[in-house]
Amino acid sequence: MEEFNINSVQVILWKTMENLIEDDFKKFKNHLKVMKDVPLSKLEKADRDDTVELIVQTYTEEFAGKTVVNILKQMNLNQMANDLQEKVLKIELQPMLEKQKAFEDARRAYEQREEQIKTQAKYAEKQINKGYKKFDQALQDEVAAKIAALREEEEQKSQMMKEKIEKMNREISALSDTMRAIEEKMRSDDVTPPQF
């Protein structure tokens, strides 16, 4: 059950009672007596303010306005009943309107937080990509350095092998020259050379 502010339904009911002429106020109290919800002993001596307090105590603020509207309609005070019904409805809707506003404010806060999360995620993604690119560049630099060192080593070893091959070629050439010289000498001495 919603609790209403004392300055809401009760105040409107007081103002409504003040707008009733004396005869209408007496008729109003008679209608209340017929309903038999309000103690008759208290209602007999009640003035307008006391009557409102008795109605609110008996029916609670939630139903007090509706009760007075119904009695006013039974008394054919339709304009007054409609005005009161409109005012009571506004008061009853007020907590819902406030709750709706609170929900809308909360929704806006959630939407803002969602945007912050998206922005933070995009920033983090950029930072990760930036870090990855730096890491990737460092890795590429390291790979390039290792490949360069490997090529340098290959070049040095190839050069060393070329030098050894050249040396072997010179040795082979010198050995071939020596063998030819020996063969020629042996021919000139008429000795049959060994077959290699």
The CATH class of the domain at 9-101: Mainly Alpha
The rounded distance between the terminal residues' Cα atoms is 123 Å
What amount of the residues lies in strands? under 5%
* SSE order: HHHHH
CATH superfamily grouping of the domain at 9-101: Death Domain, Fas
- CATH architecture descriptor name of the domain at 9-101: Orthogonal Bundle
Proportion of residues in helical segments: over 70%
Indicate the CATH topology of the domain at 9-101: Death Domain, Fas
Low-confidence runs: 1-6
Rg on CA atoms, Å: 56 Å
Molecular shape: rod-shaped
Tell me the number of helical segments per DSSP (H or I, 4 or more residues long): 5
Estimated structural class: mainly alpha
User: How many strand units?
Assistant: 0
Oligomer: single chain
Average the pLDDT over all residues and give the rounded result: 86
Give an overview in words.
- The protein has 196 residues and is mostly helical.
- The protein has a domain at 9-101: Death Domain, Fas (Orthogonal Bundle), CATH 1.10.533.10.
- The chain has 5 helices and no strands.
- α1 packs across α4 (48-74) and α1 (9-19) packs antiparallel against α5.
- Mean pLDDT is 86; it is low at 1-6.
Helices and strands, with pairings:
Elements: H1 9-19, H2 22-35, H3 40-45, H4 48-74, H5 78-188
Helix pairs in contact: 1-4, 1-5, 2-4, 4-5
Can you give me a brief rundown of this structure?
The protein is an all-alpha fold and 196 residues long. It has a domain at 9-101: Death Domain, Fas (Orthogonal Bundle), CATH 1.10.533. Helix content is 86%, strand content 0%.
